[in-house]
Amino acid sequence: MPSGNGSGADPEIVVVPHTHWDREWYLPFQRFRAGLVRVLDEVLDAMAADPAYRFTMDGQLAAIEDYLELRPSRRGDVARLVAEGRLAAGPWLILADEFLCSGETLLRNLEYGMRGAAALGGAMPVGYLPDQFGHCAQMPQILALAGLRRACLWRGVPARVDRDVFDWTGADGTTIRTRYLPGGYGNASGLFTGPAEGLPDRVAAFAASMEGWATGGSLLAMCGGDHSAPVREVTTSGLRVATLTEALTADGLAPEHNHGRAGGNGPAVPRVRGELRSHARANILPGVISARVPLKQAMARAERTLVRYAEPLSALWLARPSSRRHAAGNAPGGRPPGSAVRAHPLGPGHEPPGDAPVQRLLDMAWQAVIASSGHDSVTGCCSDETALQVAARIAEAGQTAQAVVDLVSAALAGAAPKGSLVVVNPSPFERTGLVLADLPESRARLVDAAGRPVPLQRLGHAPTLLDETVMDDLRLLLGRIHERELYGHQIVSWDAADGVFTVTVSRHASGHYSYEDLRRAILEAGPGFWVVRTVAEPVVTVAALVTVPPLGRAVLASGSPAPAGPAAVAHPLRVDPYGFEPVLDNGLLRVCVAGDGTLSLRAADGTEVHGVGRVVHGGDVGDTYNYAPPPIDRLLDRPVDVSVEEICSGPLTGVYEIARTYDWPAVIGDGPERSGGTDQSGGEDVRTVVTTRVELRAGEPFARCEVSMDVRCRDHRVRWHAPLPRPAAESHAEGQFAVVRRGLTAEGGGGERPVPVFPAESFAAAGGLAVLLDHVGEYEITGDGTEMAVTLVRSVGYLSRNRNPYRDEPAGPEMPAPAAQCQGPLSVRFGVLPYAGEWHEAGLPRLAEEFRHDLLAVPGSGAGAASPPGREPALSVSGEGVVMAALRERDGRLEARLVAEHPTATEAVVRGDFTAAWTADALGFPVDPLPVRDECVRLRLRPFEIATIHLSES
Predict the structure, then answer these.
(1) How far is it, in rounded angstroms, from Cα 843 to Cα 123?
(2) Which residues form the Glycoside hydrolase family 38 N-terminal domain (predicted)?
(3) What per-residue confidence (pLDDT) applies to 4?
(4) Residues above pLDDT 90, as percent of the chain
(5) Is 336:71 a contact under the CB 8 Å cutoff?
(6) Per-residue model confidence (pLDDT) at position 167
(7) Which residues contact 392 (CB under 8 A, 6 or more apart)?
(8) Distance in angstroms (rounded) separating the CA atoms of residues 916 and 517
(9) Chain centre distance of CA 578
(10) Measured between alpha carbons, how far apart are the two ends of the chain, in Å?
């Protein structure tokens, strides 16, 4: 038997007892938790009986918290074992999928996980990533920012890694020592199964399977697997038993011992840079990117509402008393000397309600978002029952974040007079963009604070007579009124005269209203027949082109339309003056709708592309983990009918609606009982209308597209195709704080077909064409680098298939998942633009920011003139390629997360009302002071560096 004590030339086998606990997967959360209680009861009992026993959780703290919620009496036992180093917990809260949530969500995941683990005795100081389906390019930097200099993982490692240790370098150059797990996180799960006398043979077989992998003096024998119970016999086996922390610390290969660089004393190790998405050594299950698309859409909406609206706007516009701020114990950095409590920016009288638990709402939203980011949750590779719970949790996260936005909106509305419009900019740079507003017909004009007219475009009039009916008992009207609501509007006033009772309503009513006054008026009207009219104030819906300062507001006053005509517009939207063809042109981009419903685009720099938006339908007999076409796959892209309708035509926005009708197979193969036949023949067709709403706005160099359909086919994949202006040998895609360069193929070899589909969060670009994304989506560069395909929907009927043509082994149980067919209405939003040069020269990160983050418009509701403001929040961020990923209040100061999404070094310039600034780590601990000159901080950033800075008034 190979040495159990490290003697001789053979590497020592170190047994790491562990479990990987999927909180939800083929069973929903609570059903799995019942098993978790049993397993952790056994773990704690084993550790109480045997001081030599060690156990490692799978990197996520949530499983321990789930257990303690049902077994609160064992908190002391858990805390003692964690503090003693015998039970390894954390550092993550959840084992998230690294590509299907934002980089900020990954950082908050670590923050919440390490904070919770610290309360139990300390987090495992290893970035343990046992089962994620590949790893994002910025993970080394994310871990290092939280003080973690070691990682341990399995999937995504390329073939050139031929040892169990390698140096992993992130997009910015941060390098961490990484332990690879050959054979996976359960490579020794069978070591202690079978009779005890057979253990030497099983150990020898394990050592043989690991031959050639050991870099140092040890081999990790990962004794456990999915939902596995502890094996007590390990401590009597003669093998060393350790937690993952102990095993990695004792191997002499930690970063503090040797970095594998020239001149080091230890062995040289392979080096890998960027994301880990190779199929070479394990499957990475890329189909999860496009499984259950509505989950991805909901996740993106919830993250945006929370990170870019609720947190920053509440930090800037809702100054909260220090007694209600995040407690110092929850903000590790504490409040540095000299930081001051800010006065309310809207002036006195506009603070949130005294009991408004803003920070608690934000925490609740974050916990729901993080819980939904799990690698079997937002991925959609789960049972229908689980997916339904994930969707509900994401919805709750978005609603909770929106509740905070509502508090901000109410404060902003109350500080502006009734009839005005408050427009808020969520971006850290000045924006000029469109907002929609309902204005009284008599006051359908907006002017800014300087009295300058705001460009407007009328989009439509609302009906004024909403209902007219005869009642023989006027008291029946009270049954239709809910507080102030009537027919979806708000009651403004009422009048009774000549047998007619008139109720006037408005979409956005404000001012005094009393239900009792209305009730009294109805009772005093007397008996008999009454004509009851519900009348809306004459309202016109307009698009307004508004300029708003960075992270600031613009208060626009309404007034009577001026006879002088509309305000001037830079780059106005024009249509074909002769009406010969559907054309939109704003001087920055020209969009022409072709007869087949595709688009021709020409940029101001002359870059041109035709045939954009071809919709291609094909079969998919795979599962939620892996796409797989049928052996005979008919790709259908020709519509049977095309119609084009002009919706509006400028000068601020122009819209065409393109309806293309297709006949697609209703189901692939042998009927609805079991999908996955051999071809698409022999079944009936379903007539499907795919509607593309293409919009071009004044001043924008990209076309906004929304593709909608009623998904009625099963076992299929529908993609949106666009030719590239020039051939491409690579693509660039933004996601998780980086812009990743990828080739046209994927490395294979790990038991699944290396389909070169890739994730992108905010944009994907290749060959002079960029697609700006609303949510994490799947794209592929096809046609030998001549076309981009973006997946709109992928409909499958099984969680996993035992026989998937594109995967050797099942990825989970063969369980029907009919809801993964994604039947019903579906809409996908994105922007598209051609460009010359490189992605960063086209300014794609900023364009994606503008596409993804709408200006926020709030009708004023205050009485009288505008309230005198306090000192308005003033904060801006500039710098080539510098992106603001997050902004929040943290213990009385502002915390901003900046990212240099640029291939060369750049400088971030932050200006605002602050006199002290310093850098911080991902957990909020101060690092280095920054010089502040004239309310400005300048910070040099490496390419793709993530910087956290704190700002304070003194």
Answers:
(1) 40
(2) 13-213
(3) 47
(4) 78
(5) no
(6) 98
(7) none
(8) 54
(9) 44
(10) 67
Beta bridge partners of 166: 178
Minimal CA–CA distance to 641: which of 656, 653, 659? 659
Longest CA span, the chain: 107
* Dist CA 607 CA 812 (whole Å): 47
Q: CB count, 10 Å around CB of 698?
A: 25
Q: Is the pLDDT of residue 553 over 90?
A: yes
Calpha distance 36→55 (Å, rounded):
14
Give kind and range of the element (H or E) at residue 106.
helix 103-119
pLDDT higher than threshold 90 for residue 915: yes
584 close to 694: Cβ distance less than 8 angstroms: yes
Answer yes or no: are the C-beta atoms of 47 and 14 closer than 8 Å.
Answer: no
Q: Is the pLDDT of residue 91 over 90?
A: yes
Indicate the average pLDDT of the chain: 91
**pLDDT at residue 214 in the model:** 93
Quick one: pLDDT at residue 731? 98
Instruction: Please tell me what DSSP assigns to residue 344.
Output: P
Q: How confident is the model at residue 267 (pLDDT cuts 50, 70, 90)?
A: confident
Pairing status of strand 456-461 against strand 539-548: antiparallel
pLDDT over 70 for what percent of the chain?
A: 90
- How high is the pLDDT of residue 817? 98
Report the relative pairing of strands 716-723 and 703-711 from DSSP bridges.
unpaired
d(CA 726, CA 835): 10
**No. of helices (H) and no. of strands (E), the chain:** 13, 49
Q: Which residues contact 910 (CB under 8 A, 6 or more apart)?
A: 875, 876, 877, 896, 898, 917, 936, 937, 938, 939, 949, 951
Six-digit token pair at 150?
């070691």
**Alpha carbon distances (Å) from 91 to 36, 59, 88, 165, 168:** 19, 6, 9, 21, 19
Element (H, E) at 616: strand 614-619
Burial 493-518 (b: 16+ CB within 10 A, else e): ebeeeeeebebbbbebbbeeeeeeeb
Is-cis flag, bond preceding 91, omega within 30? yes
Torsion of CA 564, 568, 572, 577, to 10 degrees: 40
> Please, which residues have CB within 8 angstroms of residue 938's CB and are 6 or more apart in sequence?
907, 908, 909, 910
Taken in order of first residue, the domains within the chain and their CATH numbers are: 12-282 (3.20.110.10), 291-317+346-402 (1.20.1270.50), 421-460+541-558 (no CATH), 463-537 (no CATH), 574-852 (2.70.98.30), 874-954 (2.60.40.1180)
**Tens digits of per-residue pLDDT, 100-136?**
999 999 999 999 999 999 999 999 999 999 999 999 9
E strands, 305-445, in order: 421-424, 431-440
β-pairing, 530-536 vs 539-548, is unpaired
Do residues 286 and 757 lie in contact, with contact meaning Cβ atoms separated by under 8 Å?
yes
